[in-house]
Design a protein that fits this description.
Blueprint (H helix, E strand, L loop, with lengths): L7 H22 L5 H12 L4 H6 L3 H11 L1 H12 L1
Helix pairs in contact: 1-2, 1-4, 2-5
Length: 84
C-alpha cells in the first residue's frame, strides 16, 4: 500500500503551525522571566528540538514536552542565564 504524498507547502504549513503552538506554550510557562526576554528564551528552547520531531509529533505541545524531557538541564541553563 502506498502512502499518500503530502504537498510540500502543506507540510511546511503544518510544521509552522506546530512551531507556533509550541512557542506559545513555552512563552506561557516563562512567566518568571521579564516579558522582553520571554520570546528569545522560547526561541532558544525550541531550537533544541530535533528537526524530525516536528514531523513525527502530531502537536507542537508534544514537541515542547519532549524538549523539556530530553534537554531539561540545558533548558534550565537557558532560563537561568536570561533571568539575570
Amino acid at each position: 500500500m502506498k502512502m499518500p504524498v503530502r504537498d510540500a507547502g502543506q507540510g511546511a504549513a503544518e510544521r509552522a503551525e506546530k512551531i507556533a503552538d509550541a512557542r506559545e506554550m513555552c512563552i506561557s510557562r516563562l512567566r518568571a522571566l521579564p516579558r522582553d526576554r520571554r520570546e528569545a528564551v522560547a526561541d532558544a528552547i525550541l531550537a533544541l528540538a530535533d528537526p524530525e520531531w516536528w514531523d513525527l509529533r502530531r502537536k507542537g505541545a508534544d514537541v515542547f514536552l519532549l524538549i523539556m524531557e530530553t534537554h531539561k538541564a540545558r533548558v534550565l541553563k537557558i532560563m537561568q542565564g536570561e533571568a539575570r
